[in-house]
Specification:
By secondary structure, this protein is of the alpha/beta class. It has two domains: 299 residues, 3-Layer(aba) Sandwich (Aminopeptidase); 176 residues, Glucose Oxidase, domain 1 (3-Layer(bba) Sandwich), CATH 3.50.30. 31% of the residues lie in helices and 20% in strands. It contains 15 helices and 18 strands. The strands form three sheets. Strands 1-10-12-11-15-18-16-17 form an eight-stranded mixed β-sheet, with helices on both faces. The protein has an eight-stranded mixed β-sheet with strand order 3-2-9-5-6-7-8-4, with helices on one face. The longest helix has 20 residues.
């Protein structure tokens, strides 16, 4: 146990932390709560614009509309930055009708970037042929000509043993406060690579065998559809559609008993007029160019199953609202405050990784030419990292992308030096339920590659609500699943942290620039079953 004298000496030796600007916090809170527009912004993105698949017509509308809003609010240097992405794609209509053994319309959604059927659709018998790896192809060779292939194993329904809607309690938040040792293995990304490649291999196998189309099973029950597809650079040969889990199981049961005939009709459109994706950027200028900038970001793109409200219209609306609030208050920060709406997040963080490579730091390309064409995941084991002009200018980055739930704190991403500063900046918001800084990282979104380069990049802890259980990537990702009070609370906190970071004496501490790690377990044996 430390003595009182020891604690006094420790505190005396530690540098004093600057107190939060409580007067500005009060002004930000007043603007957000009494004149806020975050709810209207989220509704416009979801209800009016709707799905925003990268390079789709909806995304192009969103790119223009968000720039117009930033300009109307008085932000500076509103612009886009382009990056190579691939074809645009959108859905006009789709249907799957079982013709026999009885007439029935099934719930469906085209899989993203699969081609259309001929007008009027395709009618053919179904073969249930579950395939999840190339080793399964041999079993079905010669059996699929002129068939619609049901490619999923019909998994049984799962019992709902946990609540679908949840808010975090102190215990759940506390469990996040555990340092996770970084692990870099030589096969990092191999599972993702095999998944991406299998989609192409399956399509080529089915086309070679003479199949006319395919259907798959949704990965959630209760009538939810998702429609994710990742072949935006290589257009598949066959139309593919997703069925609800319940409809797919019924189809599989009937196929066990006799012939099932389906009509699949997928009317989708490709757009090759502009294969660039675009990030939307806007600034509140700082008074000291040498002091660098702070940044908030969220991904504007979504999947097509619904309106992209929670993923990630909510995060985009909060970032935009933080910009509106600070612009309305006519703030004059020391550092520039930059706002980013990323594109291509859902297919592999394409937009934010392009910003990293252009402005912050670069990694060598993956030596495998196939992997080199894919997402930035396949550069994460490439060294050395080379700093770019903005690496030392980015003083902080805050990301919004875990649905529309209330902010409860922030992930420190293993950045120990930043913890006491973030705690101090969050301290005014204990009464709003957001005061915790946890050591653990969180991944799968646009701050991830920045944090992996040592930059002070962070993602917030949020109440999950029904995001992971129901809404995420699903056909019910609509405005109804957002909570206006939570969006307002998040906007207050994001705007306040941006203000603190923009005016702090020093940038938030960065971690050391990562270098190629050594293998820490030279005695590990590879699992031969993983090499299939």
């Amino acid at each position: 146990m430390r003595t009182l004298a020891a604690l006094f000496l420790l505190s005396a030796a530690s540098p004093a932390l600057a107190s939060p600007d409580l007067a500005m916090v009060a002004r930000i809170t007043d603007e957000a709560m009494n004149r806020g527009e975050v709810v209207e912004t989220a509704a416009w993105l979801s209800d009016r614009i709707g799905p925003r698949l990268t390079n789709s017509p909806g995304m192009r509308v969103a790119e223009r509309w968000t720039q117009d809003r930033f300009k109307a609010w008085g932000l500076s240097n509103v612009r886009t930055e382009s990056f190579d992405f691939g074809r645009g794609w959108s859905v006009e209509r789709a249907s799957v009708v079982m013709q026999s053994p009885r007439l029935m319309r099934m719930r469906t959604l085209p899989v993203a970037w699969t081609p259309a059927t001929p007008a009027g659709g395709i009618t053919a018998p179904v073969v249930v042929a579950p395939m999840s790896k190339p080793g399964h192809f041999a079993e079905w060779a010669g059996k699929l000509k002129s068939k619609i292939v049901a490619v999923s194993l019909p998994r049984p329904p799962a019992d709902a043993t946990k609540p679908a809607f949840k808010r975090l309690d102190d215990k759940a938040i506390g469990e996040l406060d555990e340092y996770q040792q970084p692990v870099t293995a030589p096969d990092d990304g191999e599972g993702w690579f095999k998944y991406l490649q299998f989609g192409k291999q399956l399509d080529e196998f089915l086309a070679r065998e003479g199949a006319v189309g395919w259907v798959r099973m949704s990965y959630r029950d209760n009538g939810l559809l998702h429609g994710e597809g990742y072949q935006h650079r290589d257009t598949p040969k066959l139309p593919g559609l997703e069925l609800t889990a319940e409809d797919y199981r019924r189809l599989a049961r009937l196929a066990k008993q006799g012939e099932v005939v389906l009509t699949i009709d997928s009317q989708v459109k490709f757009d090759d007029s502009d294969t660039n994706g675009y990030n939307v950027l806007a600034d509140i200028p700082g008074s000291d160019a040498k002091a660098g900038y702070v940044m908030a970001g969220a991904h504007l793109d979504s999947w097509v199953a619904a309106d992209g409200a929670a993923d990630n219209g909510a995060g985009s609306a909060v970032v935009m609202e933080a910009a509106r609030i600070l612009a309305a208050l006519k703030v004059k920060p020391k550092r520039t405050i930059r706002f980013a709406l990323w594109s291509g997040e859902e297919q592999g963080l394409y937009g934010s990784s392009n910003y990293i490579e252009r402005h912050l730091a670069s990694r060598p390309a993956n030596p495998d030419p196939v992997k080199a064409r894919l997402s930035y995941d396949f550069r994460m084991n490439q060294y050395p990292i080379e700093k770019k002009a903005d690496y030392n200018l980015m003083a902080a980055y805050f990301n919004m992308d875990n649905g529309g739930g209330k902010l409860r704190g922030i992930h420190a991403e293993g950045n120990f030096a930043a913890v006491p500063i973030l705690q101090e900046w969050l301290s005014p918001f204990a009464s709003m339920g957001a005061s915790t800084v946890v050591a653990s990282p969180t991944g799968g979104t646009d701050h991830e590659f920045m944090a992996a380069m040592g930059l002070p990049a962070f993602q917030f802890i949020q109440d999950p609500l029904d995001y992971e259980t129901t809404v995420h990537h699903s056909s019910v990702d609509t405005f109804d699943h957002l909570r206006p009070a939570d969006l307002r609370q998040a906007s207050v906190i994001l705007a306040s942290l941006l203000w603190e970071a923009a005016n702090a004496d020093k940038p938030l501490p960065a971690k050391p620039l990562p270098t190629k790690p050594k293998m820490t377990d030279p005695f590990r044996y590879e699992d031969p079953d993983k090499k299939d």
